[in-house]
Fold:
Amino acid sequence: QVQLVESGGGLMQAGGSLRLSCAASGRTVSNIAVGWFRQAPGKEREFVATISRSGDSTAYADSMKGRFTISRDNAKNTVYLQIDSLKPEDTAVYSCAATYKIRTIATMKTQQVYDYWGQGTQVTVSS
Structure:
């Protein structure tokens, strides 16, 4: 079992930056691949970014490239999502997810791959 807890959300101004954290606990968390997803009001949950176990491989949704950066610190059992140049359309609940499955980095963009999910953290960006 893996437990995931997100933090770092809040009310932000457009143009600012934000770093979300996903703290993992449980057995062998360094062996989990982690993804970030977001769900805006009235919309389906969408993929944001994913990172491999070692952190050597990352992938982003096409619309997220350039402003979003995923990283991990396995010593701290934490995965981060940096969001720069915040826009009102970034307003959403951001959730992290994890899996022990070994898949290609491209496959890790799909929600169905993940076995464990956090509760999410709300990010609200005002214009």
